[in-house]
Amino acid sequence: MSTPSNIGGGYMKKSLGLVLALAGLLTPHVVAAAGSSMSVSEELDVQYTYAGSAATRGAGPHVGSINEHSADVKYVFSPQVTKDLLLRFGVEWQRFSFGVPNHAPVPDVLQQASAVIGCDYQLGDQWLLRAEIEPGMYSDFENSDFRDFNAPFVLGAAYLADADLQWFFGLRVDLRSHFPVLPAPGVRWKFADEWTLNLVFPNPRLEYDVNDRFQLYLGASVESGTFVVGDRFGSDHGVPRLDHATLDYLAIRAGPGCSWKVMPSLTLEASCGYMLHRRFDFFDQDMTIRNHEAPYLQIACHARF
Question: Do residues 219 and 205 lie in contact, with contact meaning Cβ atoms separated by under 8 Å?
């Protein structure tokens, strides 16, 4: 097993990982493919979240309390084409499952099943770039057809000021969303031996390294997506105008967590706290459902080979 120095060594490789975090990812671990001169990395991310019952609030319809189970599984492999270019190919499945009172105008399930196609490119000594698109189906998987197809994409860049300070610039584009273009600037600043301010979305954190393998943090997470509901979703829930409507989903959570590097290629994480905001926005129909705060628990596994 070897790590190619032409990607910039340990420091450059770590900073590349922060570009990936800007797109909701983590850094790949580059290894040499057996019997081949081409290097390949593999990533596997698995995450599960539970949010307790949260009552409806605001001007939208009252639907009672809603709890949530969500899961996300993503696998990507990245062949190194040249000393500066990595390609990315993979798949992702994400599912939100909601405990909803009968006939409330909130989907029981929202799902994403998509491919991952992109590349990472090192531009000079201080710039790292990423482009990635995720074509696939984004819906409640009721009466699915080609109208459920979507292809959001992400553009990201990192400027490596030095080993302790990096700046990030990101852009997520989803033409189906109510907000089709979302910028995401960020910074990573290691201001002390054990402390790092990692303000990179969608998971900004203040991190404390207990040792080389164990880390504590206080942070936030943002879950979002744009989905299409079924042809009869509105009619079945007493709101016909919501038939085959487009829905923006957003949840913001905050709390403490910990990260344990079980081995160099495997990291486990756990966090808990409060879901501060959750919104189901049928923006074309001018109908939004918001929830009060609720406790949450999240566990995750990140493998790099």
Answer: yes
Confidence band, pLDDT 50/70/90 cuts, at residue 125: confident
How far is Cα 105 from Cα 214, in angstroms, rounded to an integer?
43
Rounded to whole angstroms, the Cα distance separating 140 from 144 reads 8
Cis omega (within 30 of 0) for bond into 135: no
% of the chain surpassing 90 pLDDT = 77
Q: Is residue 66 within 8 Å of residue 60, measured between CB atoms?
A: no
| Of 246, 286, 283, 251, the residue nearest 149 (C-alpha) | 246
Residue 30's pLDDT is what?
30
Q: Amino acid identity, residue 145?
A: D
Task: Fold for 5-304, please state it.
Answer: Porin (2.40.160)
Interval 38-48: pLDDT, tens: 699 999 999 99
- Domains of the chain, residue spans: 5-304
pTM of the model: 0.85
Q: Which residues contact 289 (CB under 8 A, 6 or more apart)?
A: 56, 58, 60, 61, 63, 105, 106, 279, 280, 281
What is the rounded distance in angstroms from the CA atom of residue 5 to the CA atom of residue 126?
15
Percentages helix, strand, coil for the chain (3-state, rounded to 5) are: 10, 60, 30
Backbone dihedral region for residue 143 (phi beyond 0: left; psi -120 to 50: alpha; all else: beta): left
Q: Which of 219, 225, 226, 227 is nearest to 276 (CA)?
A: 219
